[in-house]
Amino acid sequence: ENGLGVEQNLVMAMTWYQSAAEQGERMAMYNIGLFYQAGKGVDRDYGTALDWFHKAADKGDASAMHSIGVLYAEGRGVQADPVEAHAWYSVADLRYLPEEADEARRNRRDIDELAARLDPEQLARAKERASEIDARTRPGDPEPPKRAGPGEKAT
């Protein structure tokens, strides 16, 4: 994508991201969304970007959740909806990892700026919607290995 050690080739980068996304790699899904959001090597398409951000968010990716919030806040690819934007920012706030502190600070700033423009009823709706999103996107614990029964091999 960035041409580190090789010539930059956005078409090849997209090919690799798509291959990784097909295998369930959330960062690849997020990066494909960024390509479409920015029109980087592809035609700018906010709706397609939103679709890819949702795929990554469904796997718990905080940056994708923030990007969904941005699209709703700005009305890009969707009707502007500050309640929905606040909900996505709020869930992203729960998902950022310690090593993503800069992104988490930016997200917190966006939450605070948006909250200042919402009335108490809108904030209550945003909180309820955030709970729904949180339940759907919460990373699950990996399934424990099955115990072997008599005469079976463990998996």
Structural description of this entry:
- By secondary structure, the protein is an all-alpha fold.
- Helices cover 63% and strands 0% of the residues.
- The protein has 7 helices and no strands.
- The protein is globular and about 50 Å long.
State the helical fraction. Answer: 55-70%
Low-confidence stretches: 141-149
Content-based structural category: mainly alpha
Number of helices: 7
Biggest sheet layout: none
Give the rounded overall mean pLDDT.
88
Q: What is the beta-strand fraction? A: under 5%
Topology as a string of helices (H) and strands (E): HHHHHHH
Query: How far is the first residue's CA from the last residue's CA?
Result: 38 Å
Quick summary:
The chain has 155 residues and is mainly alpha-helical. Helix content is 63%, strand content 0%.
Throw out a few tags for this protein.
single chain; 155 residues; mainly alpha; 63% helix
Could you outline the blueprint of secondary structure elements for this entry?
Elements: H1 10-22, H2 26-38, H3 46-57, H4 62-74, H5 82-95, H6 101-115, H7 120-137
Helix pairs in contact: 1-2, 2-3, 3-4, 4-5, 5-6, 5-7
